[in-house]
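hi! just following up on the protien thing from before. the input was this:
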Amino acid sequence: MSALTDRLDACKAEGRAALVGYLPVGYPDVETSIAAMRVLVEAGCDVVEVGPPYSDPVLDGPVIQHAAAVALERGVTVDDAFVAVRAVAEAGAVPVVMSYANLMLQRGWDRFAADLRAAGGAGVITPDLTPDAAPEWVDAARAAEVDTIFLVAPSTTRERMRLTCDATRGFVYATPLMGVTGERAALGDAAERVVREAREAGAERVCIGVGVSTGEQAAEVAGFADGVIVGTAFVRALGDEGDLERLRAKVAELAAGVRSAA
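and the predicted 3d structure came back as:
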C-alpha cells in the first residue's frame, strides 16, 4: 500500500473514480505552473501528475509539446519538478511524476527515486519505459518506496500485459490507442476493453488516459475505470496566458463529471 493506492481506494469507497490531472512544470513559467497545480487540487483533482519538460516528447501531442518547449526555453529544471511535487503534497493531493526515462537516467535511478520520495512524491509514470527494459529503475523505486506506474494499450500482448501489471505499483496506466496524447471528440469502446484486459491480467487499480476533455466524457470513463487522467484539456485551459480561473473552471467541470458517475 502507498499514499497513491490509499487515495484511489478512498475514492472507490466513496463510490467514484479518481480524477488525475497532469500539468508540465514551467509552463508558462515555474511560479504559475506550481500555482496551477494547486488549482488542480483545489478544484477537485485527487492525484496530480507533475511533468518535467523534455526536449523530445515524442509521445505527447502538440498542446503539451508546445508547453514543454516554452518551459525549456525559460530554463526549467528537474529540480523545479520536485518543488512542484512538494507543493502538490502540501495542497492535499497525491503527487506523482510523469517523466521520460532519459531525464531519470541522467539524474541516476537511485537519486531520482530518493529525491522524489523526499519531496513527498508517491510514484513515477514512465511512458517510454517497460519494466523489463530497466530493472535498475524498478529496484531503485522499490528501495525508495516509490510506485512504478507502467502503461498498457490494446496492442499489448497477454504475456506482456501480465508482466506489466505484475511490475506496476499504484495503478496501471491504460491508454486505448497507440500514438500521441491529445483530446478526442469520441472515446470509443477500446478504452473499456483495455481496462478490462488489465484487470484480467491482475491489475487491482486501472486509470485511463484517453483524451478526456469534457464533463460528459469524464463521467463515461469514470463508469468503468478507477481513475480518469486528464492532461491536454488542462494545459490548453491554462494556456500561454497562465489563466488560472479558466483552468479552475475546466477542472471543476471534469471533477463534477467524475463524481456524477458515482
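Confidence is low (pLDDT under 50) at residues 178-185.
Strands lie at 18-24, 47-51, 94-98, 123-125, 147-149, 151-152, 172-174, 206-209, 227-230.
cheers
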